[in-house]
Structures are given as structure tokens and as C-alpha cells.
């Protein structure tokens, strides 16, 4: 069994550190007009991508058959600094990466993992150029082109993060608590992400013109710490890990009393390239591995 990884940026070379690539804060408050333009741009991208997705579904359905299980799988993931994928770190390549190594090894399945920017990864899946993607949530759009195993890699939940100084002043017992406050969310990947994470919340934020988009949890946390927004919607694992990474443990805290969303994180396998029997075998192997001490050790390593 062989297992190899590769991380690429948009130009195909080695991925640059995401922290260094982040732009410095240019203002203390986002422009309402800028927020509207961003939402309009997102809507335009969404419409275009959905048209492409429909064509991709037809093409995938037309494929003659899935690749035999004996062939090496080619799986992609997102270039990330989160606890799930970080291929540039040999000693800590990410929770999902380490779990997949063990599960595919138990199956005797060869696999190659590559990391690309998120949208590029999804386009490769939609065009049928790769065999799968991780770590992904299930949604209606993805289920048209991907087969999901029954067993998730991990369950995750998303909550509101606020500045420590605002704990007790700001709350999240209902959407109405957010009125008058800017809320930063991770920007949508057209046709993908907006279908799974709290669509009712996104609609509410858009209608009240209080939604601000960022490229990931690190810029979200920086905007929150700088006072540019009052709330940030981030999953608990990535949020807590990146708060420590940025040295913001005393400045930012999660509001854990209510979740924004909860979902399993999966490997999704491309229909037409991966057989249903392999997907089922992976699900069973993952379920068995999650009962072992080895899985618990990996879990404690990334989520102490």
C-alpha cells in the first residue's frame, strides 16, 4: 500500500503559509456597500457554477463505469492551516489525513492526496478529474456528484465567537440578538458550502445587511480581534486551534450555549470513478478503526 501527499497553490507550486499570505487589516469597519457588492458577486458566481454543475452531473452519469478498486485513488483536499488538513507538516499533517492513512492501509488501498485551493478542488471533483475530496459536509448539491460513506470522519459543530470583553454583553439566544452587529462568515464556495451551513442564518444576515465574508477562520478571527465585526461563525475545533495559533486565547471566546450548525465531516467519493462497493468498504473500515486506541490517539493529538 502506498500513500503520498502533495500540496499546491493556484500556480501549481508549493503552498505558501496562509498566515503570511493574509492581508493586513485596512479599516476598522467593513463598508456596507462593500458587503452588498460581495453578496452580489457571490450570487453571480453561484448561478454560473450551478450551470456548470448541471453539465458536470450529466457528464459523470454518462461515464461507462467506476474505476476498479485495485487502482490507486486520487483524492484532493483544501490547502488549510486547520486541524483537519495540513499536508506541509510531516509530523502533524492533519486529523483527517492521519485517519485516512490508517483506514486505507487497512483496506490495502493505494491513495494519493493533493491539496489545492478549495474552489479548484471542487472543480476537479465536478469535472470527474479526481476520485474524492475531504473533509466535506453532506449537502444536496454534492450528493448529485459524490457518494458519501455512512460513517463520518468526525462530527463538528459551528458556534459564534466573540471578543472576551463582550462576553455577557453579546449573546446568541436567537437571530434577533445579531441585529445591529456585523457577523463574519466564511465566504461561500458557489454551489457547495452555502447549501449546508445554516442557510436560515445566512438568509437572515443577508436580509439585515450584517453579513461579512472572509476566506477562512484565521482572517475571521483577525477581523473579530480588530473590532471590525462583533461575531464570527466558526467551527469549534478550527476556531480554538487558530485562536491559540494567533495568540488570541485571552481576547476571543466561543459562545457554546447554542450551536449555529452541526454536521459530520466526510470523505466524498466521485460518482462514476469510485464503485459503490469501495465506498461501503471504506465506511466499514472507518467505523472499525474509530473503535481502536489508535483512532483515539489521533483524536487527542489534534483535539486535546
Can you characterise this structure?
The protein is an alpha/beta fold and 304 residues long. It folds into 2 domains: 17-47 and 156-262, D-Maltodextrin-Binding Protein, domain 2, CATH 3.40.190.10; 63-154 and 264-302, 3-Layer(aba) Sandwich (D-Maltodextrin-Binding Protein, domain 2), CATH 3.40.190. Helix content is 37%, strand content 20%. It has 10 helices and 11 strands. The protein has helices spanning 18-21, 32-61, 95-107, 118-126, 140-143, 199-207, 217-225, 236-245, 276-289, 293-302; strands spanning 3-7, 73-78, 111-116, 132-136, 146-147, 154-163, 183-186, 211-214, 231-235, 252-255, 261-270. Strands 1, 2, 3, 4, 5, 6, 7, 8, 9, 10 and 11 form an 11-stranded mixed sheet that branches. Helix 3 crosses helix 9. The protein is globular. The chain starts with a strand and ends with a helix. 38% of the residues are buried. Residues 9-29, 42-49 and 55-65 have low confidence and may be disordered.
Question: Quick recap of the structure?
Answer:
Helices cover 37% and strands 20% of the residues.
Amino acid at each position: 500500500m502506498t500513500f503520498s501527499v502533495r500540496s499546491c497553490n493556484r500556480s501549481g507550486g508549493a503552498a505558501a503559509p496562509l498566515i503570511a499570505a493574509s492581508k493586513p487589516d485596512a479599516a476598522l469597519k467593513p463598508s456596507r456597500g462593500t458587503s452588498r457588492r460581495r453578496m452580489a458577486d457571490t450570487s453571480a458566481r453561484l448561478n454560473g457554477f450551478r450551470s456548470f454543475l448541471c453539465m458536470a452531473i450529466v457528464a459523470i452519469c454518462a461515464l461507462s463505469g467506476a474505476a476498479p478498486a485495485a487502482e490507486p485513488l486520487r483524492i484532493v483536499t483544501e490547502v488549510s492551516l486547520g486541524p483537519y488538513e495540513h499536508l506541509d507538516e510531516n509530523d502533524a499533517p492533519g486529523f483527517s489525513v492521519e485517519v485516512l492513512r490508517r483506514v486505507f492501509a487497512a483496506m490495502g488501498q493505494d491513495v494519493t492526496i493533493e491539496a489545492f485551493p478549495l474552489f479548484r478542488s471542487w472543480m476537479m471533483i465536478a469535472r470527474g478529474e479526481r476520485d474524492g475530496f475531504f473533509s466535506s459536509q453532506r449537502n444536496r448539491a454534492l450528493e448529485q456528484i459524490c457518494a458519501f460513506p455512512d460513517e463520518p470522519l468526525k462530527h463538528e459543530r459551528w458556534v459564534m465567537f466573540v471578543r472576551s470583553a463582550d462576553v455577557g454583553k453579546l449573546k446568541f439566544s436567537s437571530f434577533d440578538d445579531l441585529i445591529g452587529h456585523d457577523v463574519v462568515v466564511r465566504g461561500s464556495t458557489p454551489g457547495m458550502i452555502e447549501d449546508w451551513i445554516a442557510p436560515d442564518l445566512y438568509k437572515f444576515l443577508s436580509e439585515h445587511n450584517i453579513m461579512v465574508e472572509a476566506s477562512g477562520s484565521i482572517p475571521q478571527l483577525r477581523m473579530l480581534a480588530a473590532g471590525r465585526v462583533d461575531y464570527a461563525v466558526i467551527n469549534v475545533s478550527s476556531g480554538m486551534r487558530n485562536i491559540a495559533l494567533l495568540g488570541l486565547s485571552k481576547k476571543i471566546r466561543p459562545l457554546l450555549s447554542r450551536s449555529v450548525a452541526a454536521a459530520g465531516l466526510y470523505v466524498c467519493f466521485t460518482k462514476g470513478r469510485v464503485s459503490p462497493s469501495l465506498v461501503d468498504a471504506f465506511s466499514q473500515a472507518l467505523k472499525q478503526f474509530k473503535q481502536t486506541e489508535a483512532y483515539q490517539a489521533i483524536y487527542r493529538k489534534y483535539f486535546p
